[in-house]
Amino acid sequence: EVQLQAYGGGLVQPGGSLRLSCAASGFALDDYGIGWFRQAPGKEREAVSYINTIRKFYADSVKGRFTISRDDTKNTVYLQMNNLKSEDTGVYYCNTRPNPIIPWGQGTLVTVSS
Fold first, then answer.
1. What whole-number distance in Å separates Cα of residue 99 and Cα of residue 5?
2. What are the φ/ψ torsions at residue 67 (nearest 5 degrees)?
3. pLDDT for 72-102, tens place per residue?
4. Could you say which of 27, 40, 60, 83 has the lowest number of CB atoms within 10 Å?
5. What separation, in Å, do the N-terminal and C-terminal C-alpha atoms of the chain show?
6. Cis check: omega of the bond before 100, within 30 degrees of 0
7. Is the distance from CB of 81 to CB of 64 less than 8 angstroms?
8. Phi, psi of 86 (to 5 degrees)
9. What would the pLDDT profile of 29-48 be if each residue is shown by its tens digit?
């Protein structure tokens, strides 16, 4: 089965850090660009970051705080999130980019709260 599983979320205080992982199964990640998305309560899903073989892209809201990376030997993409803010709260998902073609998983919940 082809799938992407995001994990590593949790509850963190403002200013804290988390590292999310996106693990692929059923296909090789190195053939694709991979992006992180998030959906805050009551809002639509938005793109957060994206990595391909050449570049990394970040939404303006996370530039300087989030870092995307990939380890193709582990078939995994990571999102290091530092200096988290309450507005970073949401369910985080990963999928292929530029076009999401893998069925969306359940994501991983990140809650930033004191």
1. 17
2. -135, 125
3. 999 999 999 999 999 999 999 999 999 999 9
4. 60
5. 39
6. no
7. no
8. -60, -30
9. 888 999 999 999 999 999 99
